[in-house]
Amino acid sequence: MQRKSCTRVLFLVIVVIYAFSGLELLEGKDANEPFAKTVTDPKRDDSIRISGDYMHAVIVAYGDCEKRLRDRYGDKSTPVTAHVSDIHNYFVLIEKVDEGRTYRVDFWPEPFQGGPIKGGGVSYLIDANTFEIKDVERSM
């Protein structure tokens, strides 16, 4: 069960990152870039490459964010709270900051019924050496 859950999380993170990170802007970059787009089959243009350290940072933040959303919006008493309580309705941005010593992983809610959601984002700072959460900041 634990392995299935990890595989599901990994798959969802890859899909979310690919779908919302604007990888088309990286086409001219070197394949060694952490989010470089690589085509493994000329008929398929939907594969991406994510370095393990970036993925590790995302997985750490994802687990914590999923728990925080469930704790904060778990009642799902309205359609909006049902939407924002589900991490599958968020996209992820990740970057190295602080001269490469930290990853910033941001989660932002997708639009609800075609309209944007004001606030609701969560930003994590993850130590690049220990992969421990250094700071969490909610966006209002």
Summarize the structure.
The chain has 140 residues and is of the alpha+beta class. The protein has helices spanning 2-20, 52-73, 79-84, and strands at 90-97, 102-109, 122-127, 133-138.
Provide the descriptors you would attach to this structure in a database record:
140 residues, alpha+beta, four-stranded antiparallel beta sheet, 34% helix, globular
Describe this structure in words.
The structure is a single chain. The protein is of the alpha+beta class. It contains three helices and four strands; from the N terminus they run αααββββ. It has helices spanning 2-20, 52-73, 79-84; strands at 90-97, 102-109, 122-127, 133-138. A four-stranded antiparallel β-sheet has the order 1-2-3-4. The longest helix has 22 residues, at 52-73. The protein is globular and about 40 Å long.
